[in-house]
Amino acid sequence: MTWTIYLSGEIHTDWREQVETGARDAGLPVAFTAPVTHHEASDDVGVSILGAEPDKFWHDHRGAQINAIRTRTLIGKADVVVVRFGEKYKQWNAAFDAGYATALSKPLIVLHPDEHAHALKEVDAAALAVAKTPEQVVAILRYVIEGELSGYTDARDAAQ
């Protein structure tokens, strides 16, 4: 089985690439999906396709609705959802994605630095795991998918 992992959240660092590379290096049978991570394209999709909107609210609303088609579809198809909250920006959309995934009973892994623990306590409470690094996310995926825990099991032991 190939597991589908949806990577949501912060778009200003390479955390997605770190998770994808780590999973590939671990030989995990995974396929990754994500929202559109080109910030301007994501913001402007509605007006680029449907036409100019002078009111910024409706400009953003159109884009959010079209982005939601992708987000809802891919979260719905995911086996596991990983949501990253970065240090620099408030990711309200990431919090929404975490709540949506939880409402769909999708296994949720949250990734954020310690300084966000208080602000994200409700999100963390809904998650099945809270990680601090992309490497921890890969280790969780390896354990969940392959039954392998570094230092404890190998592929032969996990199969027994």
Q: What's the pLDDT, averaged over the residues?
A: 94
How many individual helices? 7
Identify low-pLDDT runs: none
Task: Count every beta strand, where a strand is a DSSP E run of 2 or more residues.
Answer: 5
Give helix and strand order, one letter per element, not per position. Answer: EHEHHEHEHEHH
Give the amount of beta strand, in percent. 5-15%
* Main pleated sheet: 5 strands, parallel
What is the CA-atom radius of gyration, in angstroms? 17 Å
* Strand line-up of the largest beta sheet: 2-1-3-4-5
Q: Secondary structure elements and their pairing?
A:
Elements: E1 3-9, H1 15-25, E2 30-33, H2 39-50, H3 56-77, E3 80-84, H4 92-103, E4 108-111, H5 121-126, E5 129-131, H6 134-146, H7 155-159
Parallel strand pairs: 1-2, 1-3, 3-4, 4-5
Helix pairs in contact: 1-6, 2-3
Features:
160 residues; alpha/beta; 7 helices; 51% helix
